[in-house]
Amino acid sequence: MPIFLFIPSPASFPSLFQSFVCCHPVFLHLLFITNQGHSLTVEGWLLVLFCTVALAKLDSSLDRHWDLWKTKYQRKYQNEVEELNRRAVWEKKLLYINRHNLEASMGLHSYTMEMNHIGDLTKEEAQQRYTTLRIPKDFKRKPSAFKAPSAGVPSSVDWRKDGYVTSVKNQGSCGSCWAFSVAGAMEGHLYRTTGKLVDLSPQNMVDCAGGKYQNMGCNGGYMHKAFEYVIDHGLEPEAKYPYEGRDDNCRYNAEYRVANCSSYSFVEERNEKALMEAVATIGPIAVGIDGDLIFFYSSGIFSDPACIERVDHGVLLVGYGTDNGVDYWLVKNSWGPEWGENGFIRIARNRGDMCGIATYATYCNI
């Protein structure tokens, strides 16, 4: 007679039923070799059926590709059960990417995607790690102090070519996009005022811009609150306060600060013309975007009507231009140089504030 394991209700462990974590053959075997005297519940039989179907759906032809991906991104899992779960997520993302690129080859999309380091994360996990910008519900911005130059602005701008932009960084699994965005804006500000390009420290803000500044380190933050911290304390260079990718005690030393800000301003909300004039006149600007649809962006001009104004990711606007008649914003991300176009993304411009890029733009005043 078979021996059964009593399985609790799916409601007790919803993640098991959502992510295949229970579906390893070893787990299924244990269902029938432990807790003699119990019969399998209805929920247990459903779990067995669910797991059997999940296992059958894994594509064995992708075994080598999965191993190559794990090697490239140095993935090591706690056990085979976790690996099975991650493999299922990865295959689902790979199918999504391949379908998108097939449609792009038929002219249905203006950009391509590729598998990257985010491939084994669920949507919720990716959001928790990479899209952690926060905008308070009661947020009230000060009126924009920016005045457009009477002579107009160039048809294209790329501050990388003029030395305002440091190398692309990788925030890792720390939700510190807000700090990288402000550090990048301050790097441009420092170059504009001193002629020196210095890598500034996002970790300085991750560790020290909490408390009265209301930022939450690796759990998210606010760009304007980070600017308030910089106004009060300045910023140390990366060389003196290196990035750790985790929350730590504040070790700020005023003797090492190299960047200062007297005040900050916002660009007029949802006004792409004003944003274009501001970035052309001031230099790189800290902006927020809806980052949920760009996780696997590879190249081209990103445009998607589903990318709305739910701003949740801090990035750095470093220019704008036009490619084959399509206007775009040039944006520096903090997901490493292998992501996107060498760490950058071009987002459609003059398309109804695509991804909310003109919703939350701020900079240090000269």
From TrEMBL:
Keywords for the protein's UniProt record, in alphabetical order: Disulfide bond, Hydrolase, Protease, Thiol protease, Zymogen
Q: Which residues are in the Peptidase C1A papain C-terminal domain?
A: 153-365
Could you tell me the superkingdom of the organism this chain comes from? Answer: Eukaryota
List the residue ranges forming a coiled coil, or say none: none
- Give a GO molecular function annotation for the protein: cysteine-type peptidase activity
What Gene3D superfamilies is this protein classified in? Cysteine proteinases (3.90.70.10)
Q: Which SUPFAM superfamilies match?
A: Cysteine proteinases
Q: Name one Pfam family in it.
A: Peptidase_C1
Kindly list the biological process annotations in GO that this record carries: proteolysis
Q: Which residue numbers delimit the Cathepsin propeptide inhibitor domain?
A: 66-126
State the InterPro entries in the record.
Papain-like_cys_pep_sf (IPR038765), Pept_asp_AS (IPR025661), Pept_cys_AS (IPR000169), Pept_his_AS (IPR025660), Peptidase_C1A (IPR013128), Peptidase_C1A_C (IPR000668), Peptidase_C1A_papain-like (IPR039417), Prot_inhib_I29 (IPR013201)
Q: Which PANTHER family has this protein been placed in?
A: CYSTEINE PROTEASE FAMILY C1-RELATED
Family stated for the protein in its record: Belongs to the peptidase C1 family.
Q: What is the protein's given name?
A: Cathepsin S, ortholog2, tandem duplicate 1
What organism does this protein naturally occur in?
Answer: Periophthalmus magnuspinnatus
